[in-house]
Amino acid sequence: MLTRRKQEFAAAAFFLALALALWGCVGTINPSLSTKAAVPGFAIQPASQTVTVGHPANFSVTVTGTGPFTYQWQKNNANISGATSSAYTTPATVSGDNGAAFRVVVTNAAGSATSASATLTVDPAPVAPSITTQPASQTVTAGQAATFSVVAAGTAPLTYQWQKNNANISGATSASYTTPATVSGDNGATFRVMVTNSVTTITSSSATLTVNPASVGPSITTQPSNQTVTVGQTATFSVVAAGTAPLTYQWQKNNANISGATSSTYTTPATVSGDNGAIFRVIVTNPVTNITSNPATLTVNPVVTSSGTDVTTYHNDIARTGQNTTETTLTQANVNSTTFGLLRNLAVDGRVDAEPLYLSQLSVAGSAHNVVFIVTEHDSAYAFDSDTGAQLWKVSLLGSGETSSDDRGCGQVTPEIGITSTPVIDRSAGAHGILYAVAMSKNGSTYFQRLHALDITTGAELEGGPVTVQATYPGTGDNSSGGQVVFDPKQYKERAALLLLNGVIYTSWASHCDDSPYTAWIMAYNQTSLVQTSVLDLTPNGSEGSIWQSGGGLAADPQGNIYALMANGTFDTTLDANGFPNKQDYGNGFVKVSTAGGTLKVADYFNMSNTVNESGGDVDLGSGGAMVLPDLAYGTASTLNLAVGAGKDGNLYVVNRNNMGKWNANSNNVYQELPGAVPNGVWGVPAYFNSTVYYCDQGGTLKSFAIASGKLATTPVQTGASFTYPGVLPSVSANGTSNGIVWAIENTGTAVLHAFAANDLTQELYNNNQASNSRDHFGSGNKFITPMIADGKVFAATTNSVAVFGLLP
Questions:
Q1: Does the pLDDT of residue 7 top 70, yes or no?
Q2: Is 453 exposed, middle or buried (0-12, 13-18, 19+ CB in 10 A)?
Q3: Are 763 and 782 within 8 A, CB to CB?
Q4: What is the DSSP code string of 446-489?
Q5: What burial letters (b/e) apply to 251-271, b meaning 16+ CB within 10 Å?
Q6: What are phi and psi of 614, to 5 degrees?
Q7: Is 307 within 8 Å of 361 (Cβ atoms)?
Q8: pTM for the model
Q9: The dihedral formed by the CA atoms of 260, 263, 269 and 270, expressed in degrees to the nearest 10
Q10: What percent of the chain clears pLDDT 70, i.e. is strictly above it?
Q11: 12 φ, ψ to 5°?
């Protein structure tokens, strides 16, 4: 029984096992019971995106196949952490994301698929508009159109909308706008423009339209007057005209046009006897018509000659050429240590900073003398017989109870300040002739600057002198009060030589070191009354900019214009419509000043493009003096009107006096520039002779620059020796164009007088160290001393004397 049950149990177990085995095989062996999974595909690929820096980008896909799916986004084929969905948003983009490639790998049970790559373009952030050049005010005549323009920057596209008196102008949607023909009612209208881009809108500053009345023909309010001069002098004719600008002028002599005579004044060349009785008139023209002035007659009297040479102003003439071409005694053959040397030393009571002056055959106390005039920093003026050394007269220019000035805490003129600048002489003025000089003095803490007029035969004060120098000028610059700049005598010294031009004495003023406050003054005085007739401040709304010129004088051209080199000071880089500084500040400028009508006014100027940096670094023009070149062709087809100047920056500048170049931030628009021609900088003045310009930089050689085809040579002839600070200030003697000698004084330490052949500076003819036993030593040097040559003698100033050199007995 038990055996049978066991058998039944075993059979049941077998069939159960068989059933279970058959059940497990159903899914494997019967495909109709299950569906096979599909590999992923892409219905929509990721699309390339363009965004702006700082914005995110969105990429997405739509896939086909059997889910579930997994996603892995990649940037530049590298997995992006956490980017595991069908869409991916980047972080805020940066410029480095530009060009990145994005794709996604999709996976399911059947496998994986990789999408196409999408490119991310990241554009820069848009920049708001800005205005780099504002609209400028315009002046037109009624009936003319005016054009306003703006220059703007920013992300394109930029759109424009011009407004007149704050109201939109229909159709005025470009960067410039030209009005219809103007009417008088448009006068004073304001114009501005709104510039817009995707970021914002900005509005320009307003520009004002000035509409002048319709043109009026010219009229002459002051006619030219008759002139009387002596042979060799110049004559100046002038006219004052009214009418609509621009007015143009053409002077005529005996009814024939005078070339280049196209301003309201005309100064003749040096007259000759044949000019006597000539008739001068001027034709004034404007856009309406022209009108001819009344005729004026020139009377030329014969010259009263003396038997020798006169040196009446610094560097021989008002052009400041430093040439005496009437020297018949001194030659290249006899200026040597055997035949030439020290004759005598004229002792005085103080430093001699001014160049001595000279008159030949002057009658003093009934006798004729060759007279040398000397002024000192002790406020004394002397007259000596240059042939004997006898003192003819001496006067003090101090007022009662006064002393010479202290040095004002500045070592440039020390230990006292009296007469610093070179005087000027008019031999025909007064009863006997007059010497004009400026002297500084003090009484306690009160300082004085005075202009003196001295009789050249006695030293007596003339013309109601002296007169105290006082001045004001409209401006807000240093030492201003109530809209006027005030001249403070204690802040200035008269360093540059006086200029006498057409009956007017001109003074110019320098500071004590750079001790503020000070500005740049030029003052004019009538030579017969000593009345101040005009004042000009060249930095009236700024500071500094004084006139030093290392003692060199204001220079003048034949047309009656004055030239000066300005020291470091304020220069306005904002220019008016005519290219002049908008606040009339000309620091570090080469300035041309008109004297027309008796009024000082800037007529033209030149400033180098880096003028502000030069002023800030004290690398300015003011250490040099201007020189007007003779009006000659110099190998060109027409006459050239040139002037030269150089200062501390080592460059030599030649200007066309009719178009000096003004200022441009990007270039020096000057007639000729010789960069590095005087590499150590110039503390002195040049000289001119026979189409050659002579310069010496401090610590450098004396150089000659020949002029050919209207230009200075770029490679000069040089002396073998160099000269320590401040270099030498050359003068030239010659007999016409022959026997030219360049004279120079070493002014530091023991003074040394040198003579070089003008046609070849490598040939030194003489220096006073060549003679044995110190025969020709003459004293201590005094900076900025210029040799003066007349009638066979050379005069050299020292700290307490003037030495006289000549042919030895």
A1: no
A2: buried
A3: no
A4: EEEEEEEEEETTT--B-TT--EE---EEE-SSTTEETTEEE--G
A5: bbbeeeeeeebebbbbbbeeb
A6: -65, -45
A7: yes
A8: 0.65
A9: 180
A10: 95
A11: -65, -40
